[in-house]
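Researcher: Here's the sequence for the chain we discussed earlier.
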Amino acid sequence: MTTQPGPRLAHSTASQSSTSHTGVQPTDLWQKALATLDDDFKAKLDFKNSTKRDIVGKTLKTAEEKKQICLKRPWKFKVNGKDVIVRDVLEKLIRWLDHFKAIGDIAVQYDQAHAALPWAGVRFLLKASGSGWLETNRTDVQQVAVNDTNVSVSTILGLETVSYLITRYAILENVHTRRNTAASTQLEPLLTGLYAEVLMFLAKAKKYFETPTAGKLL
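Model: Thanks. This is the structure I predict for it:
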């Protein structure tokens, strides 16, 4: 996935072997990934008023609110030559949030608070990239800066991919990082690197939307 404000996020295809559970205490890989970033990125990842408490529920509520707006005004844009219906993207993002919540119900050992930081970023950017043009009564964006609109829609697409990655690799963490095996040892730095890419995407996107010239239609 490539968006204008952020880096490329690749879906990892690494396969891991399965062995017996050994009860290894998991590391907070999101915090470990954060520690690898430059100070400028870390500063941008300070999402005020976002706490670990029910951040997934709050993000889900924000996504649902944006989806309801899109049900009244079905925004559609061209991205890389393809039609993108914002409502459909939000529906996918909501499904990933629901899947992530289900992980906590099924895998009681997984600490969902570990992923509070990226979910806080998703929530912040849902609000930032959807404010203005998403709430307006206009059915076109001809008078709006084209570049800002493209970045906003691309960011929402990116957030759907980020939500997928958070959820998919939470499952992988729960299964493999508690196993004292060569595969689990190799997996940890791979996940840390991937999480760092996700956090950089969120930080760059946040920086874009915080700049005064970032097109406040978004």
